[in-house]
Design brief:
By secondary structure, the protein is mainly beta. The protein has seven helices and 34 strands.
């Protein structure tokens, strides 16, 4: 979900003690629009463009002939064979058609080697490293993502379906979204100048988004958001890739004072040293602690099989999503991103690793495992840096935090990281309120009250919130299922809701019995603020421009029950 960095001009201020920054656009901006201007909705029409006509014909052709699914063009032999095997699978064919035989528009969004972090444990023996291929197919009408695993004989060995989800999009669709944004008259109306393709800079892929209150969200379509930056503000153009039309424009959000541009090389972010971490779990054994960790395709760094002094504390914890929403006007509209973090190799994660995980000593004893995920142009506006930190204390407490270092696209954003926590197997689950512990027999969700004496107990393991900068948190408890996060998950939920509907509610609706292993989902709400929380800027230090970070974080604390 690398962002399309569409820019008319960035008014970059050169510091007096450093050289002038290179220009990033030759376009001269017109009058700057007011902050929080009204949203301009599209007229419902699809622009008459050769690229759109070609896409429409490609879709019609796919629906008229087997396998009735849009395939990714230009793939090498083995990957192409795998996507064709996946598309022809009977389960996939059933999921992409109605009982009447009518075909649903579906498209292969990603094809690549199935990494260890992408697969449920049951497939470990079937799919050793390099043996299987992972194919992600998106069904447009019902927003279902199908994850299909194909072995080296082109036999389908697993199919998982996840409703109400959206995959990362390929570059071809990102480029098409850019063309739609440029060709739509609402974009020109918002910008004050006719947009051209030359205004698009540094794009790799577009960003999935939902705009609350528009046809885009009501119909639950696949939408992306090219961003135009101008002065201290950002223009969002929402493009519906299901109907190939513009949904809305002129959604301006205040970014704060723009800073010097700083690019991080692709080579740094996609260093070959990171690739092995996508395939092979690394073992951590120190000071009585033992754990393994693995980089997933889009669920960040997953910490697995954690034990202290030989006793299990945690089966798994990972950072599934980051939902970032902004107020876009006085009428209550909100717009934003659903960011995923993960492996830079064979992955379409939005934010990829900046470096290998680090292990550092803590001042009060113990140590911390940390990994940083970064947009290529961070800390430029509309770029993000996320962190995953696990702190192993000498008393046997594990604290896991999801952190944001901004910079983001506005000073009024709300961050909702989605953490998946799997307690030790067969531990049961109870809710703890002070000295009262109530066994949980069915799935559910609630607002999570604060306090170290309020949380959840799984066997002899206690899970409580580590609030950090959160002002509110939601918690969900669900039965452990392979299709609900044991392997890699696509984006769940929406970027911009202010209520408990953050994605995991799909796993507890309708509630089912908690008859075996259980999973907790922790979703805090963190408000950002310029130079206070979830923010970063470039500052001069020793003659060099370096990032200055005002971080924010929230997570959970996991410890064995007193006396156990």
């Amino acid at each position: 979900m690398h962002r399309i960095a569409l820019a008319l001009s960035l008014a970059l201020l050169a510091l007096s003690s450093c050289s002038t920054a290179p220009a990033v656009s030759s376009v001269t901006p017109g009058p700057q629009p007011p902050a929080a201007s009204a949203i301009v909705l599209g007229d419902g029409r699809t622009p008459d463009l050769p690229a759109i006509r070609a896409e429409q014909e490609r879709r019609r052709a796919a629906l008229a002939a087997a396998p009735f699914i849009l395939l990714r063009p230009g793939l090498a032999g083995p990957l192409d064979a795998a996507q064709r095997a996946a598309a022809a699978d009977p389960q996939v064919q059933d999921a992409t058609s109605l009982a009447s035989g009518a075909r649903l528009l579906a498209e292969v969004m990603a094809v690549g080697p199935a990494r260890a972090g992408d697969l449920p444990a049951a497939l470990a023996a079937t799919c050793p490293p390099g043996a299987c291929t992972r194919v992600v197919i998106y069904v447009y009408p019902d927003t279902t993502s199908l994850t299909v695993v194909v072995d080296d004989r082109d036999q389908v060995v697993d199919v998982q379906a996840l409703a109400a989800s959206q995959p990362e999009i390929p570059q071809e669709l990102a480029a098409l979204a850019t063309q739609i944004a440029v060709a739509s008259p609402q974009t020109a109306q918002a910008l004050g100048v006719p947009p051209t393709a030359t205004m698009a800079l540094d794009y790799a892929s577009a960003t999935k988004t939902n705009l609350i209150g528009t046809p885009c969200e009501r119909s639950r379509h696949l939408c992306v958001s090219p961003v135009f930056a101008w002065g201290t503000q950002a223009l969002w153009v929402i493009v519906d890739l299901t109907e190939l039309r513009l949904v809305g424009a002129a959604t301006w959000t205040e970014q704060g004072q723009l800073s010097q541009r700083r690019d991080v090389s692709e080579a740094t972010l996609q260093d070959d040293a990171i690739a092995p971490l996508c395939d092979t779990p690394q073992t951590l054994e120190r000071e009585g602690w033992r754990a393994s960790y693995l980089l997933t395709s889009s669920d960040g760094l997953e910490l697995r099989d954690v034990s202290f002094q030989g006793r299990p504390l945690l089966a798994s914890v990972k950072m599934v999503d980051w939902h970032v929403g902004y107020a876009a006007g006085s009428d209550g509209q909100r717009v934003g991103f659903s960011d995923t973090v993960g492996c830079p190799v064979f992955s379409s994660a939005a934010i990829i690793p900046y470096s290998l995980p680090t292990i550092t000593d803590e001042a009060e004893g113990g140590f911390a495992l940390k990994m940083i995920f970064r947009s290529p142009n961070w800390p430029q506006a509309c770029n993000y840096q996320y962190t995953f930190t696990a702190t192993f204390a000498p008393d046997g407490a594990l604290t896991v935090l999801a952190g944001s270092d901004g910079r983001g696209c506005g000073v009024d954003g709300l961050y909702h990281p989605v953490l998946r926590i799997a307690p030790p197997p067969a531990a049961g689950l109870s809710r703890m309120d002070g000295e009262t512990t109530t066994p949980l027999t069915t799935e559910g969700a609630a607002t999570w009250p604060g306090g170290a004496d309020r949380g959840f107990v799984a066997g002899d393991v206690r899970v409580t919130p580590a609030w950090g900068d959160a002002t509110l948190a939601y918690v969900f408890w669900s039965a452990a299922k392979a299709a609900e996060g044991e392997g890699d998950l696509p984006s769940i939920g929406t970027c911009c809701r202010l209520d408990i509907q953050q994605g995991p509610e799909a796993f507890v609706t309708p509630p089912e019995p908690l008859a075996g292993d259980s999973v907790l989902w922790y979703v805090p709400q963190i408000p950002n603020a310029e130079r206070a929380r979830c923010w970063a800027d470039m500052e001069l230090k020793d003659g060099v421009l370096v990032p200055h970070i005002w971080p924010c974080d929230s997570g959970v604390r996991i410890v064995r029950e007193p006396g156990s």
